Known about the structure:
With 84 residues, the chain is of the alpha+beta class. It contains 2 helices and 4 strands; from the N terminus they run H-H-E-E-E-E.
Amino acid sequence: MPDLEGKIADFLQDRRELLQCAGGQGHWQADSMEFDILETGERKVVILIRFIEVMVGPAGQVDRCARMLLELDEFGEIISAQVR
């Protein structure tokens, strides 16, 4: 799949699914986001995503990590995401 990493990076920039990975007390720091592709299939990709959640108050920052299943359409475009 050409430029799969670029498509994933663009897709993740403003995803509500990331709220499921976060503790719900803050927001994610977009420039801290990193991911690794763990598995690829014909119509799916599993990634491991890491980012920093910025918390309000004394907690400061929390490192977060989760697996995410990305579903692809027949053209290789990401059409949905689920936190696993």
